[in-house]
Amino acid sequence: MSALDLLPPRTLPEPRALLRLIKPVTWFPPVWAYLCGAVSSGVPIWENAAIVGLGMVLAGPVVCGMSQAANDWCDRHVDAVNEPDRPIPSGRVPGRWGLWVALAMTALALGVGALLGPWGLGATVVGVLAAWAYSAEPVRLKRSGWWGPGLVGLSYEGLPWFTGAAVLLAGPPGFENIAIAALYAFGAHGIMTLNDFKALEGDRLHGVRSLPVVLGPEVAARIACTVMVLAQLLIVALLLIWGKPVHGLAVLALVVAQGLAMRVLMKDPKAKAPWYNGTGVVFYVSGMMIAAFALRGMA
Q1: Average pLDDT across the chain, whole number
Q2: CA Rg, the chain, in Å?
């Protein structure tokens, strides 16, 4: 028995563990998507820097951070198998602190969303409901390898993009903008499927029917790659149809780069999925900003 075993159980959370609970590394996708939406609106960014900055904080640290805390609380039994060193199963965020953090951040999200006007608040309500529907019983869409990644893709890419444009336009963006945001959200289904590879064993044990669990790593990886490529090829086609050939060809070049990274992924999908999410996804999100600039004046 070590000296640590003789210490009384922790009653207050460790500050560093609280930061890990809301996972800053996950904030980038919604923050980036919100910025893409703001750019796509055609409204001058620098003249509206305060509202754009507030929206990015809402999308990333607040709403995404809340969703991560909610997910870790609802996943604490799965994480005890997959990653026992996480804040809640390790005891560094003890008792029901994980739940209290998620609920407090839910209230904070709604408060900040209200500062962005009716479109910002409405989108925040949708984002908060999606976060809890993904993780919490009895809905827990995370159990499905189809609905779960789809909901996360929508919440991480499509919803923030739409919100960034709608807040600056003080109204809904046009069809072209919504179509591009929806396609990038659809393609993100593949990114989220690859993200499920890291929890393969725990998901299998606890009945989470992710695509890697149900179909196996190789088939799941092929589906993920197909979804990502298909979404972007449709975006390229739309940009060409809309008279944006330079932007369309630039996105196509990034798709080719992703294809090369996907060849590495398919050599060992289970081992290479984290590598692809750290490399190939960079090309994906770069294409998002190119498409956003193409939409300026069309919003």
Answers
A1: 91
A2: 20
On whether the CB atoms of residues 121 and 113 are closer than 8 A, the answer is yes
**Helices 28-40, 269-295: inter-axial angle, 10-degree rounding:** 20
Write out pLDDT tens, residues 77-119: 877 877 888 999 999 999 899 999 999 999 999 999 999 999 9
Q: Which two tokens stand for residue 42?
A: 């055609």
- Domains annotated for the chain, with CATH where assigned, are 15-295 (1.10.600)
pTM more than 0.70: yes
Residues 6+ apart with CB under 8 A from 200: 210, 212, 213, 217, 270
Q: Which two tokens stand for residue 84?
A: 């026992």
- At a CB cut-off of 8 Å and minimum separation 6, what does 256 contact? none
Amino acid of residue 237: A
Cis peptide before 138 (omega within 30 of 0): yes
Neighbours of 92 (CB within 10 A): 19
